[in-house]
Structure formats: structure tokens, C-alpha cells
Specification:
Shape: elongated
CATH superfamily of the largest domain: P-loop containing nucleotide triphosphate hydrolases
Number of strands: 15
CATH class of the largest domain: Alpha Beta
Number of domains: 3
Largest sheet: 6 strands, mixed
Order of helices and strands: EHEEHEHEHEHHEHEEHEHEHEHHEEHEH
Strand content: 15-25%
Strand order of the largest sheet: 2-3-1-4-5-6
Helix content: 25-40%
Number of helices: 14
Oligomer: single chain
Length: about 475
């Protein structure tokens, strides 16, 4: 990436639409309702031969207090300070508003490079608004339509010389990557391939606060209001020497309670983050842990085949910690047997307590998720399991287990060749899965076990029948 471009402007002027066009994906939520975007969202943008980082920001509000709008404004101002170039967007159909004039004055003082864009400028009805934009004192506006892709080459013409100048200045600051270190371990996280961690949970469990604590800065919008996060925001960091990409997701409520279109989009975005993650941290509220929705979220992560870590937040305000911890462990074992042995970590996102334990649990869960068992050890284990508890004989036909092999990792998947695989009881399958967990130290991670039939493997059967047929034919001729 040669530079960073922050898109700023009033709510509902088309910032997220332009962001999606530049990154080539529908990453940011887009809706006619103003104020959809609240957090800063970064993406890898492409415009012709330019490659850069683009930041989608919340709509600039006039509020400066501790309200939600005030906190959103401060986060956007922070993006202005950290970006190399600011793209200030106005709505050409509406024209220049008093709020636009206020923020244009702010950008002149805070940003080194500002590009003025008049969006929604398709058609003659927007001509007056484009002309008004000259009065903001930020130069000639780029006339564009982010929705229809108009004006992109005009934007490229302005960005290209700025990119060349900044690329030359950054040449000596490029980080060096140790390629040999990346190849020493297939699954070890590297800066180019960081460990992907999604933080999920109910609204107001403290997901954004937890990620801010990991980052060591207020990167994500937080507050007492439930449901602040709407997009699935991803951020990169180096956490204790481990390169990690963190996904902050919207709080997931019961499906029956999700009626608002925007909330449905937010939940869908969070579910997509779970599918792309490697480790899913299910964050619970210590005051109300393991509610029905928490169980559904944890089960979803397991069904998607992700490594799961359960973190109980707000532990700093828990009065009876020892009794509560025993209660949590008992409930975890009873309510989530499919995640037997998964790590349960108590943390305080506010104070930072337990963060080292959480990091260790995530790294271990990722290692287990990538674990491979040699075939020889696997079949020695299978023989021991058969001696300890032979498979049943449904309808008087005993099931013979011949051998086992590991077919995949991420999550670990095993195949057992046997007779009558369709008659294998679920209870015996669970017996083998639990044995795999205990024997090969794979607690908590999803394990996929498949039974397959071999058919008749007698190597002489076909040859014997062929010889018999040839003999009958010879005798018939005589």
C-alpha cells in the first residue's frame, strides 16, 4: 500500500458506496437510512494501477459531547489525522449545507491533502450543487457517482501524482519480511497470513472494548448503548508476537427479535466473519452467561468448523468469583458437550485482566485446530479403542473397523474404513471422537469423523471368476 485515503463527509452522502466500489466488494453496509456506518472500516483499494488503503468513516456530526454522535465524530477526526489524503464528499443533489462548510473549515486546518468530491452528480439536477462546491475553498470538485462508477478516472488523475510522491518517500521505510521464517511451519501465523480471530456474542457483551484492549487504543467505537457496532470491522495487530487479524462483529440477538432491516444486515455480516475466521471467541457477560442465544452462537461456530474459545467478560465486577467460576464450568460442560474441553477464560475488557490467558488460549486452540496425527499412531489408537469397547452388532451383524486415517485439518477430519458404515450408531461415533480428543490432546476443537465402506477387497475374487468362466467355455467347445 502506497498511501491511506480516508473518505469523510456528512451522513448519507455515499461514503460507504464509494468504499465498496474501491475495494471491489460489498464490505460496508449500505442503506438509505443515514448514519449506518459508525466504526472506521479499512480495506485494500484498487483504482486502475493504484493500490492503497481506504478508510470508511462515520458521517461527520456537529455533536462534540459524550453522546454516541460525539464519539463517532472523534473517531472520524482520528481517521483524518492518520490518513495521508482525505476525500471530502458532499451530496451534489442537496448542494452545500452549513454543516459541509463547518467541516470544510476543519479539514483545511487538520488535513495536509484534501480532495473534494461532489457525489450523486449524475444528471443536470446536480449541476447547481457542483457549482456551489467551489465555494468551499478546497479546489475543483471531482464530479462523481459512486453508485454508478462515474468519475473514477477523474479521481485517479488526482491520486496518481500524490501516490508517486508518497511512494518515493516510503521506499526506505518498507518492512523486511523473513521468508525463511514463514516456511518453517505451515500453520504458524505470519504478517502476510495473520491468525484470523472473530469476536462474537450478544449485544453489549463488550466485544469492541475487548478488541480496543488488545490493540492498546480506542480504535473501535464503544459505549453503554447496546448494538453500537453494525459492520464486521477487521483490524490487524501484533499481539504478544503473534500477528492477528481481529473481526469485531455486531451483537447477535434472537432471530425473532431482529426485525429491523439494518440489524439483519449487521447480523449477516457477523455470520460471514465467523465463516472466514480460524478461531472464534464467544464473549459472554459474567452477569448473564450461557443464555439461549449464547449457546446458539457457540453451536454455530462449532458447526462451521471453527476453533472456539469462550471468554467471560466483566469479571472485574463479579463479587463471588470462585463460586461463579465453578458454576460456569459446570454449565459449560452440560450445555455445550460438542465443545468438550474448549478453553473457558475469564477476562475484563475494561481493565485488561486475563488478556494474557486469552491470547494463550487462542494460540493453543489454533494449534489444535491444525493438528495432524500420523496414520501409524492413529491405527494403534484405534486397536486399543476396539479392545476396550468393540462396536455393536445391529441386527446381529457385527461392524468391523479396519483402519483409520486423517483426511484433513482445520478442523481435524478423520476417515474410518469399516463394514456397514450406514449402521454405525451415533453413540459409538461419539465414543471415538471423545477418544481422539483425550488421546491426542485435541480439547474443544470440532472433530469430523466419517465412516466409509470398503466393499469386497478380495484380490482373487475377480481372477477366480474369470478362470472359471474360461474353463466352462473350453469345456463347452469340447
Amino acid at each position: 500500500m502506497t498511501f491511506t485515503l480516508a473518505i469523510v463527509g456528512r451522513p448519507n452522502v455515499g461514503k460507504s458506496t464509494l468504499f465498496n466500489r474501491l475495494v471491489g466488494k460489498r464490505l460496508a453496509l449500505v442503506d438509505d437510512q443515514p448514519g449506518v456506518t459508525r466504526d472506521l472500516r479499512e480495506g485494500a483499494a484498487r483504482l486502475a494501477d493504484l493500490r492503497f488503503t481506504v478508510i470508511d468513516t462515520a458521517g461527520l456530526e456537529e455533536a462534540t459531547d459524550e453522546s454516541l454522535q460525539g464519539r463517532m465524530r472523534r473517531l472520524t477526526e482520528r481517521a483524518v489525522d492518520m490518513a495521508d489524503i482525505c476525500l471530502f464528499m458532499i451530496d451534489a443533489r442537496t448542494g452545500v449545507t452549513p454543516t459541509d462548510e463547518i467541516f470544510a473549515d476543519i479539514l483545511r486546518k487538520r488535513a495536509d491533502r484534501v480532495i473534494l468530491a461532489a457525489n450523486k452528480a449524475e444528471g443536470a439536477a446536480a449541476d447547481a450543487g457542483v457549482i456551489e462546491a467551489f465555494g468551499l475553498g478546497l479546489g475543483e470538485p471531482v464530479r462523481m457517482s459512486a453508485e454508478h462508477g462515474e468519475g473514477m478516472m477523474d479521481l485517479y488523475t488526482i491520486l496518481q501524482p500524490l501516490s508517486d510522491a508518497m511512494a518515493e518517500a516510503q521506499t526506505n521505510d518498507m518492512p523486511q519480511v523473513d521468508l525463511d521464517a514463514e516456511e518453517t511451519d505451515d500453520h504458524r501465523p505470519t504478517p502476510a497470513r495473520p491468525l484470523q480471530v472473530a469476536v462474537v456474542g450478544r449485544p453489549n457483551a463488550g466485544k469492541s472494548t475487548l478488541i480496543n484492549q488488545i490493540l492498546g487504543e480506542d480504535r473501535l467505537l464503544t459505549g453503554p448503548e447496546p448494538g453500537i457496532t453494525r459492520d464486521a470491522i477487521s483490524v490487524h495487530t501484533d499481539w504478544g508476537g503473534t500477528p492477528i487479524r481481529l473481526f469485531d462483529t455486531a451483537g447477535m440477538r434472537k432471530k425473532a427479535k431482529v426485525q429491523d432491516k439494518l440489524e439483519k444486515l449487521s447480523v449477516s455480516d457477523g455470520l460471514r466473519a465467523v465463516k472466514f475466521a480460524e478461531v472464534v471467541v464467544v464473549l459472554l457477560d459474567a452477569a448473564i452467561p450461557f443464555e439461549q442465544q449464547d449457546l446458539r452462537i457457540a453451536d454455530l461456530a462449532e458447526r462451521e468448523g471453527r476453533a472456539v474459545v469462550v471468554a467471560v467478560n466483566k469479571w472485574d465486577i463479579e463479587p463471588e468469583r470462585q463460586a461463579k467460576l465453578a458454576e460456569l464450568k459446570e454449565a459449560f460442560t452440560r450445555l455445550l458437550p460438542q465443545l468438550r474441553g474448549a478453553p473457558l477464560v475469564t477476562v475484563s475488557a475494561k481493565t485488561g485482566r486475563g488478556m494474557d490467558r486469552l491470547r494463550e488460549a487462542i494460540v493453543k486452540a489454533h494449534d489444535v485446530w491444525n493438528r495432524r496425527v500420523p496414520t501409524a499412531r492413529l491405527n494403534t489408537w484405534l486397536m486399543g479403542m476396539l479392545e476396550q469397547h468393540p462396536p455393536p452388532a445391529p441386527q446381529g451383524r457385527r461392524i468391523k473397523l479396519r483402519y483409520a486415517t486423517q483426511a484433513k485439518t482445520r478442523p481435524p477430519g478423520f476417515i474410518v474404513m469399516c463394514s456397514h458404515p450406514d449402521k454405525m450408531p451415533d453413540a459409538y461415533s461419539r465414543y471415538l471422537v471423545n477418544g481422539l480428543r483425550e488421546s491426542f490432546d485435541m480439547p474443544g476443537t470440532p472433530i469430523r469423523l466419517t465412516f466409509r465402506g470398503q466393499g469386497d477387497k478380495n484380490p482373487y475374487k475377480g481372477k477366480r471368476e474369470k478362470n472359471a468362466g474360461a474353463l466352462r467355455k473350453h469345456l463347452g467347445k469340447r
